[in-house]
Amino acid sequence: MCFLFHLSDKAPFSKTLLIIPSALAFLLAVPFSQYKSLFMYNLHTIKQEFQIWRLICGRFICLDLTDAFCSSLLIYNFRIFERRYGSRKFASFFLCSWVFSALFDTLLVEALYYACDVKVDVLPSGLLAPVFALFVPFYSSIPRVQVTQVLGQFAITNKSLVYLVGLQLLTSSSFMWIIALSGLTSGMLYHKNIFKTQHVIFIPNWVARCGSYTLEPLFSTAEPTLEAAVGMGATLDIQRQQRMDRLDQQVLLSQLPQMRRNTQQQGSLLNWNRFFPSLRQRRNGNHRADPRPAQNTPANPPQVSEEQVARLMEMGFSRLDALEALRASNNDINIATNFLLQR
């Protein structure tokens, strides 16, 4: 189970999906374009000649650079699920959606032929169906937070860009809707565990251990320095705020093991207010340092929005942990979500 927990923070499986298929797509698009026909997702050839290797290559290597770019952007955004659930479960989701979507592709093409007399031989190639499948947990698990409004009516949220990239991918080909529908269906099967799909197709433990030994050295990088986290051209106040926020996270992570042991022994809630007093003081003080000594005056806890509590509970957190995290983060759902995910 080391692949499930030990590597989930660095998302090695997502990085593998970003690097290898993109590199192969570039090679087949520029220097080796004459070999493109060998890697086409041709259902007619697969069925007639039973070429399993063409099925695997056609559903792994993307032959269109635009589709490869859009799918890479989506995989990069969906890496949060690997960090949340672990690399082994994320890879199991990807494998299950890949297998079931291949079956649904064939069924949809046959149904389209018999119902509408439309024959489809070639479908868009690449890891497209599992990418569309990831929209299922993205829609149901990630909270929707409004960022701004356009023309005073259209809300722009933290999920709008991902949906726009998915729409671009959907409209890139005339038969991409078949891939999208099969991917969404397979994603719902796994996410809802219909027909016990999570117990039917999964990554074995020995494969997870081999992946851990293989991918950990490849994707292990040194922690960035405090100076590297600061954007160039930032003001001194922003630089100071970024450094202090990073120190807050480091202090939190260093105290989490002891905090968990105390919680298990006492059976009580996590006292988030112990770990983030400086963060709340900086936000309430508009990032201004007070040279005078702090006075021990009791402060009223901030009011917590029930809507934000509901969004955190939709992500799988308990109501009590959601309340504590929102109070500690001064009712900032993004910071509260980050704290809860890093537990």
UniProtKB/TrEMBL annotation:
GO terms for molecular function: serine-type endopeptidase activity. It comes from Acipenser oxyrinchus oxyrinchus. Residues 294-304 have a biased composition (Polar residues). It is found in: Membrane. SMART domains: UBA (SM00165). Residues 282-304 are annotated as: Disordered. GO terms for cellular component: membrane. The keyword Hydrolase does not apply. This is Ubiquitin-associated domain-containing protein 2-like. It is a multi-pass membrane protein. The chain crosses the membrane at residues 12-32, 52-78, 90-116, 122-140, 161-184. Residues 303-343 form the UBA domain. InterPro entries: Rhomboid-like_sf (IPR035952), UBA (IPR015940), UBA-like_sf (IPR009060), UBA_UBAC2 (IPR041928). Keywords: Membrane, Transmembrane, Transmembrane helix.
